[in-house]
Amino acid sequence: MWPQQCAMDTLVDGGFPGLTGMAACPALGLVATASFETDAVDVYAIHQPLFTLRCSFHGHFRFDCMGYRSGWMSFSNVAPYVLYVSDFGKHAVHALDVQRVVHAGHVGTGFSEPSGVAAFEHLVAVVDRGRRVLLFETRNSWSWVLLRSIHVGIDYVQGIRFARDGASLALVSLKGSLVQVATDKGWSVVHRTGVSPAYDLEQYGDGWLVATKAGVYLVGRNDEAQMVIGSGSQRLAMVPGHGLAVMDDYHTWLVPSPMEAMSAARTQWMGAVARSGIYVLGVFS
Description:
The strands form 7 sheets. A 4-stranded antiparallel beta sheet has the order 1-26-25-24, with no helix packed on it. Strands 2-3-4-5 form a 4-stranded antiparallel beta sheet, with no helix packed on it. The chain contains 2 helices and 26 strands. 44% of the residues are buried. By secondary structure, it is mainly beta. The longest helix has 12 residues, at 264-275. The chain has a single domain, classed as TolB, C-terminal domain (Neuraminidase), CATH 2.120.10. It has helices at residues 258-262, 264-275; strands spanning 6-7, 19-25, 30-35, 40-46, 51-58, 64-65, 68-69, 73-75, 83-87, 92-97, 102-106, 114-120, 123-128, 132-139, 143-151, 157-162, 168-173, 177-182, 191-192, 198-204, 207-212, 216-219, 225-229, 235-239, 243-247, 252-255.
């Protein structure tokens, strides 16, 4: 288990108020955050040792509705690098053009309770009502066509991610199952964490990091779930040059990854953090 936690709020002047989502775009060197306190999406340039606010989107979102918080986010990994944001209060999935700073529209219509959202190349996957996944294809950059709607074999689905090769999807539910799904061959369960409830996930090596109320678990190919961070979390995001961001309602922590921990820039950043009196999580092992 990684023993210490670093407050990621020190990376931004004023900190992150009430985060409910975060996503990174390595191609553009950007990190986006969603806040349930301000109902805003802020986009930062990734710098060392701090982040620099690049733009903000206001007036489009209602992330906190009837006690349920949405704001799952995902960047497409191909130009124009659309940022997709789920919004329970507005029953919508927003498409944001962060380069032109334009709200570019909505993916699909008629969502009831959108939660997890994931993007890979020209595909966008959205969880709705906690039990079905809608798979869209992007046409002409700013229009979306529904390819299929698939009911999942578990309820209360939250976070969803494409595998890094784009060949499959993985998702978690409040019942604690992690399910990996082939996008063109139907659904097949390959991992079950036995951990409940689960909110979000990120791929790490051959396994998946899963965010739960109890902590963050690493689920490997052998289905074993090892707790690696002992504090509860609701969102996870890989941040280039910094590591894994771990979020709860009011705090954001940072776990440095091996490549970043060994780089000269990373060493300088950790030195700056250490001088500020902030503690940093142990390096991934």
